[in-house]
Amino acid sequence: MAVSVDTSVRPSWVRTGYKFFPYAAQQADQWWVLRFNVGFPEHDMYTIFVDNQVVGDVTGDPDSSVPLIASIGALNPSRPQEPMLDPAGARAVVEGVARFVDYGSERGDSCVFCSDNRDALTPEA
């Protein structure tokens, strides 16, 4: 079953505290999680997962007319004042997608240039 997202929404992203899955949002009773793609700019900056299923790749643009793209473009992990998900909630959300830490792994085809033995639960630096 294909998963899709409503690009007309502007999710309230919160930081997870994890390096490779830095943001999540609860949207319409689903968890949306962004994976930071280490291979950026060869790959889009993020991959979106909805309830642990891949939706697609995206690079945000704060000036985009598409609310979802603008919301992602406005994210800045270096801003400590961004809201954080509670540690237990963040861990539960990230554990659902942790097996997809490498770009392409969600399709069973990890990028040979971007893959490494990464720990999805590595905290932000």
From TrEMBL:
Highest taxon listed in the record's lineage: Bacteria
Alphabetical keyword list: Plasmid
Official protein name in the record: Uncharacterized protein
Source organism of this protein record: Mycobacterium adipatum
